[in-house]
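Re: the multi-chain job from yesterday

Posting the exact lines I submitted so nobody has to dig through the queue logs.
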Amino acid sequence: MFTLRQVGCNARSMLGSLRQMSASAGPLVDVAVDNAGVATVTMQRLPVNSLNLDLLTEMNKTLDDLAKNKTRGMILTSASPTVFSAGLDIMEMYNPDFKRAETFWNTLQDVWLKLFGSGYPTAAAINGHAPAGGCLLALSCEYRVMATGKFTIGLNETALGIVAPTWFIDSMCNTITSREAEFALTTGRMFSVDEALKTGLIDETAADKAGTIEKCRGFIKKFERISPMARAATKQKIREIPLRKLMQNRQKDTEEFLNYLKNPMVQKGLEMYIASLKQKAKK
Ligand SMILES: CC(C)(COP(=O)(O)OP(=O)(O)OC[C@H]1O[C@@H](n2cnc3c(N)ncnc32)[C@H](O)[C@@H]1OP(=O)(O)O)[C@@H](O)C(=O)NCCC(=O)NCCS
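And the result, structure tokens for all chains:
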């Protein structure tokens, strides 16, 4: 379900497995494996990597394949020069086909469970804006490096009249203090790169995309002498409660999402937000 490029040639066994996976390549996710066996996963649903069902399905499959092939680590980034991901594709939520909306939400849950709960190290090379679901993906990784520039990152759901699900909130609280998360979430705060660094929402900055990837690679390198099993089990223990909460409440969480979409006020809010985005794009 994704395209494959090789970077370097020492990751032979990994590469062999990845080649098999690339037989069913799709266009929205690119995977490149470096000499150390670290996979750089690039979202490439341009212009803004909004997370629709197709992109999420490819990401879900990619995460399965990386786990199966025992990747040494994963760096998540974007093919856009200015946007990491614009978050959930609003068109999946506006006047939706409810059967598709259910599959969409279940796939997003799967992606989060696999990314937040992965045994291998994960880092986000945030080379542009990361609102809402884009921020969620970054928060699901263990380390975040953001490119400097006039970019913003945050969970802005309340600004759209949407309530962020518990697991979005848990991801934020796993990264910054509950107090800061509450303030940011209730106000729909979008952080500048400097503010994100100061708050701890991101760990480092870099001048450009190459720099963000290099620093992510440096983070993953820290685990070279650490037992992968001990590492994965420790991460699992730290992340266990939010993961278990969603696994035990998936159905209820999905129903809540679908009920939101059935609310005329929410639909009106989405309609106005889409109009404002289109208006902005025309200027
Ligand atoms: C991410 C962002 C900062 C990028 O800004 P930009 O580079 O100037 O790009 P634009 O805003 O012009 O968006 C490009 C196109 O993507 C569309 N788009 C942007 N975000 C989208 C989203 N989340 N879902 C669907 N479409 C989206 C825009 O409507 C525009 O479509 P058009 O070309 O048909 O007019 C900006 O698009 C944005 O803020 N998006 C909304 C993010 C958000 O609130 N997501 C929450 C979803 S729950």
